[in-house]
Amino acid sequence: MTKWLLLLGLVFAAVKSQADSLAVYTEHFPPYSFEQDKKITGLNTELVRRTCQLAEIACEFHLLPWLRSFEAVQKNTNAALYSTSRNTLREKQFKWVGPLAHAQANMYWLKSRSDTPPKTLEEAKKFIIAVARGDIYELYLQSMGFELDVNLLQFNSKSDAVLPFLHGKVDLLIASDLILPVWLAKHQQTSDAVISVIDLSEVGRNYLALHPEVPLETVERLQAALDTLRQNGEFQQLQERFLKPSHP
């Protein structure tokens, strides 16, 4: 009997240990997530880190290309992924904690072009739109009738499309007003070079997406911790810290 009780205790300890830890994946996506001085940081990184701390869950952060991060969290039953757009296309794939920091997404057009930009998604089908492989905007636009190699051109990451966009090799770039200035600055450009033409806010806000087998109790602890950060002002403090114009 003592032997079985010991084994049972070890099983419960292992389950509890797993419930109190998470592998957390993200991509290079400044100002939300990026590596600086060999440390993964960024607005949503620090927000998730503080959320884990308050929830007393040990979170180990991993920065990988988006598709690798997405695949990792699907394979690991004790994992999470951010900054992940939450909408009907993904709702049943994950459990959700959020929202995290986010900004409205749009399709952008170069001001220097002489032709007329599209005003609707239907009109946008006549142009080439840059999308990242496996990204929610690729999935969303395909659900709206867009097609790869017809009016969608794939890139390995969102930011890889910026230079081709600036050179006129793709017509429309998807970004938010937080992300776009960071991308453009790397090419000695500012937001004055582009105009927003189509609102994509319905695609969804940023969340922490957890594997569906993560215990509900863990999800609830994380959500309660994030709510506390909103209430005590830390959420706003992190936004002010990372959204300064001088930040990389």
Automatic annotation (TrEMBL):
Keyword Signal: yes
Signal peptide, first to last residue: 1-19
Record carries keyword Signal: yes
Any one Pfam family match given in the protein's UniProt record, by short name: SBP_bac_3
Record's keyword terms, sorted: Signal
Gene3D superfamilies per UniProt: Periplasmic binding protein-like II
Domain Solute-binding protein family 3/N-terminal: 21-246
The protein's name in its UniProt record: Solute-binding protein family 3/N-terminal domain-containing protein
Organism of provenance: Alishewanella tabrizica
